[in-house]
């Protein structure tokens, strides 16, 4: 393993001076999602008729086709379903490596997020690892990221 692969996975805000990431454009449908991390709580739309979690945000429940959706809090816990270690600096000042993962959330089969896995050496991330949400604040956006549950439990 090369030395860069054993470095801790960093939050993108810590990935290098001068790196400016692309931020999502806020609109009436997604604003709650990108700003809910301000209080440390992950929220997604949930159908008020059939209780199905809906992500990414959309105006209609894909299960029962109702428009009765509302943001609700989730536990913020999940399992790493898949991941990759990125070792290419895609922009000036971006430090590598960093981990991009797909996290399956505990609330519903198939409910998942593509996100960064942080707070752990990139070569220590593994499929099936239990993780918990943390947020990276950039301008008026709180980006949900995930770190090993063990980090939070030890704190």
Sheet-strand content, in percent, reads 25-35%
Query: What's the total count of β strands?
Result: 8
Across the major sheet, the strand order is: 6-5-4-7-8
DSSP helix fraction: under 10%
Biggest sheet record: 5 strands, antiparallel
Structural class: mainly beta
Show the helix and strand layout.
Blueprint: H1 31-35, E1 43-47, E2 53-54, E3 69-73, E4 77-86, E5 98-105, E6 112-117, E7 130-138, E8 141-148, H2 149-154
Antiparallel strand pairs: 1-2, 1-3, 4-5, 4-7, 5-6, 7-8
Overview of the molecule:
The structure is a single chain. With 155 residues, the protein is mainly beta. The chain is 7% helix and 34% strand. It contains 2 helices and 8 strands. The chain has helices at residues 31-35, 149-154; strands spanning 43-47, 53-54, 69-73, 77-86, 98-105, 112-117, 130-138, 141-148. It has a 5-stranded antiparallel beta sheet with strand order 6-5-4-7-8. The protein has a 3-stranded antiparallel beta sheet with strand order 2-1-3, with no helix packed on it. β7 and β8 form a beta hairpin. It is globular, with a radius of gyration of 16 Å. Mean pLDDT is 88; it is low at 1-8.
